Amino acid sequence: MDAYHRHTVTHADHPVAAPLSDRAVEVVLDRTVPRDGTVRLLDLGCGEAVWLRRALAARPGATAVGVDLDEPGLAVGRRAAEREGVADRLRLVREDAALHVSDRPADTVLCVGATHAFGGLPPALEAAHGHLADGGTVVVGEGFWEREPEGAALDALGCGPDAYDDLPGTVRRVTDGGWVPVYGHVSTVEEWDDYEWSWTGSLARWALDHPDHPSAAEAAATAREHRDAWLGGYRGTLGFLTLALRRAR
Length: 249
Known about the structure:
Methyltransf_12
């Protein structure tokens, strides 16, 4: 019987585990990772290492380390890296990203959609700084309120209104911490919709294709509940910001 792992199923059609299009990911990488020369990347909370694999594919001089607690996701990343011919330059480590100790600084440190592993945005940036080479760049992805959250959105997300700031407030938290934004991408409604329809659709399709699996009912219910929470709760309220940051001198 096929193994069931929710994260790998929900991201089957949208492997970037954040509401960014493939083009947006490419642009962010081009702004933050040189294509020539030797460069080292570190992804804290890498999931299936999609960001790292795409960076390595276009940068033959680059090497990368990805850290995540999700072993099935890391296994997917390792298999994909073998197929894509970048496995010899990618090391994936099962570890709490907040506890990771680098053997040498990285030129680019990524933490996209994983700041919760550190307790929020400021501590995530502080941790990233500890891994960063002088003059290096941090790529961080974080939620923000597109508009004042109402009860339905807060209930759907299971959080309070202070869980996020608005867009100016989010950027201010970054700059107050001594960081300078050198690029940014605000996810569009289209990117959010594609991400959420892919997340819920992949899971619903899996449940339909595996009706006799012990997890089929749970998968179908999760897809339905997530879709309802998104459409009836936080769609148009929760935004997502990806920033490229350098330290102020």
